[in-house]
Write a structure and sequence with these properties.
Structural class: mainly alpha
Helix content: 55-70%
Largest sheet: none
Oligomer: single chain
Number of strands: 0
Strand content: under 5%
Number of helices: 6
């Protein structure tokens, strides 16, 4: 039920709330919850894990997730003029890869 609710929230643009919904499941932290939401809805959600938080300083809470999501949306808007098929999860994956040195 929590995953269905998270999918509904993410698809309606309430991605941060979707991550918070998944976090209500037993023993799930923000990092794994954001991974599940991104898997469910890759066109709307991003992963905020320890690698990105540590390198870029986002907080491990709903506000930190919302801030990172907003920053990824801003980058996506800038890229859409030259890359029509790019998704928000692609922006996040590129940031992760850059941090990891790929």
């Amino acid at each position: 039920a929590a995953l269905k609710q998270a999918e509904h929230l993410a698809k309606s643009g309430q991605v941060s709330m979707a991550v918070t919904e998944v976090q209500q499941l037993n023993q799930l932290g923000q990092s794994f919850a954001s991974k599940l939401v991104r898997f469910i809805c890759p066109t709307q959600a991003v992963i905020l894990d320890e690698v990105i938080r540590g390198a870029l300083g986002y907080r491990e809470n709903a506000d930190g997730y919302a801030e990172f999501l907003s920053d990824c949306r801003t980058l996506l808007e800038g890229a859409e003029s030259s890359c029509r098929d790019i998704r928000i999860c692609d922006v996040e994956a590129a940031i992760f890869a850059k941090i990891q040195g790929y």
